[in-house]
Amino acid sequence: MNGVGGLEWESLSAKTLRELEHASGALASGTIEAMEQRLPWFRRLPADQRASVLLVTQSGVAGFVSWLRDTKQAIRLTADAFRSAPKDMSRWVSLRQTVELVRVALEVFEGRLPEIAADEHESAMLTAAVLRYGREIAFAAATSYAAAAEARGAWDARLEALVVDGIVRGDTEEALVSRAAALGWEPAAEATVLVGNPASDEPTRVVFDVRSRAARVSRPVLLSVQGSRLVVVLGGPADEAGGREVLPKMAEAFGPGPVVVGPTVSSVAEAHRSASDALSGLRAVVGWPTAPRPVRSLDLLPERALAGDPEAEYQLIDRVARPLEDATGGLMETVDAYLEVGGVLEACARKLFVHPNTVRYRLRRVAELTGRNANDPRDALVLRVALTVGRLARARGLW
């Protein structure tokens, strides 16, 4: 036979149940009055929100009476009364505050129910019943808040994936910025895109690894796993000394294989340029087996150009070929000659009929204009490819 706290349900008389039903309105009103007296934050709520709490309280009282009438319903009525409330209330009442509301309601019930009971036995019965009912209410509220938090988390994850996908596709600025702002991203924050392989087949683990490393370096981050590719949008500067230290730490969140870093742009609205360059570099990095990890997309310009990336060709022309052609003093022919003779200074000087010191001076000027040192094997490759791309573009009438 069903009971509460060792007391039999049959001991609760029909008269007491009727009295309890008639007093339900007063119980709900008294509960709201107690909330207003004891909870300062509740008094500050707008009238419509306090009215919502009153409706929930009235539903709870009615559910309590119905539960006492039919024990087979168990706590189903409790869940029915409180399941939908947190979906609305959670926007303006925290879980802690909800527990405070339940505590006040229980104290009011415990104080007034003995007056309704026909005798001490029924009073004890009601007291035990309301304690169990209140416990179930608290559990139901906590479950609903947890479900709401999970739903918000799932929605945030979908919205984040939409933002990163939009960055990769180059969506319109307005839609991208508004969605990123909804995730708490500062619209004016600088952004850098990193791409590579995810460290795990489990998306939750990938998300945890990326977010934990971003938290350690105090940077905002957006990410999306796109099949076998992980795309990370990192907030904040990445070109200064502190930023350059951040990139290797973030690269640890990626799986085996290269990690390519796009250029840092002024805002998330421009992040598609960083993503485009990073993805181009990821496709071309196979051409540089010894590339550092992470590697900048700008450092992969030769491989990207050879892979057919027109943006890389343009950047090689703009950063290397055009400055050398526009410069005076024979810089372009000096670079050509120096690379042609395998970087032998004296041989280059003889080829150009100039003094070796003149070659040294010109090569310093080349480094100042282009940022590339012809004595460095990697920079020499960039210079050679840039000059070749520039000549091909000029031959096609593109420059």
TrEMBL record:
Family per similarity comment: Belongs to the CdaR family.
Lineage: Bacteria, Bacillati, Actinomycetota, Actinomycetes, Pseudonocardiales
Pfam families xrefs: GGDEF_2 (PF17853), HTH_30 (PF13556)
Keywords for the protein's UniProt record, in alphabetical order: DNA-binding
First and last residue of the signal peptide: none
Sequence ranges assigned to domain PucR C-terminal helix-turn-helix in this UniProt record: 331-388
Organism: Kutzneria viridogrisea
Location of the CdaR GGDEF-like domain: 170-284
Protein name: DNA-binding PucR family transcriptional regulator
Any one GO MF annotation of this record: DNA binding
InterPro entries: CdaR-like_regulators, CdaR_GGDEF, PucR_C-HTH_dom, PucR_C-HTH_sf
Transmembrane stretches, start-end: none
